[in-house]
């Protein structure tokens, strides 16, 4: 009987996760030349909690990139684009998502040969730059990400611009006596103003910044850090190629157990999310990941 109750409970969670929720754009404004913040209202806040900040939702579009799902043909499925919830305000029924823009200096977070538009499959990027107050979009989720033990002997936390929202939530849970390395890749030094300046980091958690396209890559920056004594916990979310290089460095060269790590690629240079999804699956199978 207990097993049946647990099965039904987990089944309901999956149904709620996949059920589409209606969001309405309430505000859209730049945080920097690279980041655009959009605030949404929703009457379906009961699907979210305070813990939803840092979790992901999947924005739903038609194959042509429209947010009006009534335009879907009978045999069409919505196209999904994954983004992290930066903030959840239960009292005011507000959800916030920070988007990395792919115009101006933000071209560093795409491939110049890939023109991100609705026609090319860059639905999320187009929406971020053109969303108007009052526009409605549907999402699935929220979905959780793997947690790590933040009380290990030291921490190695790594993120690029696309993972800053998720990283910010991790940093809120880091104990004050934590030691280790925090490595963040930005498009510009100005990009650290909206979020990092407000963070109260432990004094023994050393921050290292690198700029994409200038000097050492994110993976190279991580490899140049001193490797501390003791058993670490590792959290890494960034571009696919950087993630693979860092994963190899941590788990193969330094023999850190995969169970003590979170590795996730949030995007891949030169491809849309559809192509990235297939590449991630191939990587999972070839690396024999759980």
From TrEMBL:
The molecular function GO annotations come to: oxidoreductase activity
A Pfam family matched by this chain, by name?
FAD_binding_9
Q: Which InterPro entries match?
A: FAD-bd_FR_type, FNR_nucleotide-bd, Riboflavin_synthase-like_b-brl, SIP_FAD-bd, SIP_fam, SIP_rossman_dom
Q: Which residues form the FAD-binding FR-type domain?
A: 18-149
Tell me the superkingdom of the source: Bacteria
CDD domains of this UniProt entry? siderophore_interacting (cd06193)
Family under the similarity heading: Belongs to the SIP oxidoreductase family.
Q: What is this protein called?
A: FAD-binding FR-type domain-containing protein
Record lineage: Bacteria, Pseudomonadati, Pseudomonadota, Gammaproteobacteria, Aeromonadales
